[in-house]
Amino acid sequence: MKKIACILAIVLLFACVKEDHFGLSPYGNIKKFLVSNQAGNAIINADNLLVTVEIPGGVELTKLVVQEILLSSFATANVAAGDVIDLSDDATITVTSEDGSIHVWTVKSYVASATPQLANGDLNAWYKTSSGYYEPGVDAASTIWGTGNPGTQILGKTATTPYDLGEGNKAARLLTYDLGLAGIPLKTPIAAGSLFTGYFDSDKLDPTDPEAAVIFGTPFTGRPEKIRFKYSYVPGPVNKDRNGNVLDYDDNCDIYALLEVRLGGTVQRLGTAWFRSDANQPELVTKEMEVAYGPLDNSYPDYMRGEDVDFVPADSAAYMLPTHISFVASSSYAGAVFAGAVGSELIIDDVEMVYEEE
After folding, report:
1. Which residues of the chain have a pLDDT value below 70?
2. Domain count of the chain?
């Protein structure tokens, strides 16, 4: 137990180190940037001090509100969250590093597609982290995808890995692992493979709560009719709860997408698409999930409706655009409460938004 606690303490310590420096820091980077109505992750080019954001057509560019701006450690800027920014033309943000050096950034905007897709939805791009495991995306700065790997790799497990389909085509392999002796003290016997839009915040790491460090969602403004993907699934042989009790039903994979409207500190769900299955499907097949817009009635299962969910009213849901999408996949649907079957394997590939034909 002491060894595990020591390992976790070391991980938490190093997770807090954002940019190594000695003396006064010279860094003056913008590391994350989000304005109201933004359609996707900002593209940040530190070499050219350039931030590019995607804004849907028809949005008033002169009165956008900065929702989030993350700077280098100890740096300050002349723009803060809550400020109004005019992106009808190029805007500038002045960042002052800890050592007093000035870094003048340019912010540009361009019109978003009415039928956007998720970046790296084909899951072909994977980058190697400093800890030696792989994560989906070109690099950590630009990816919209996260996994639970940062939380499990300290125990030598990476439950989500790239899967080579041949001829340069990759997918994501999500596997439910037995954490062995390391999981006994905290009653965390398994780690389920996970893939989601968003990121893992190591500062919030809690070994007893896998979702505590997960920040779900990425900016998105499309209204897809369906969400299409390829998948295969083989449930593990014995499904158990976190106490080791054998359950009388098989493990299930879980794949879902939530379209949300996040404005003024509130979150309303606009659209719901969900696929949960215990079927043995060893070969890759194509699956489509229909997106249900607005409140869900009792004809939908409880897990789709959720608890205390604030839905966009039906009349507004008929036309409103989302601001974010949370796409989530897991090899064990109850992995967040450490229930699942060791060996459950989900392969997922080619996530695609399907829009109505004109």
Report:
1. 1-22, 205-210, 358
2. 2
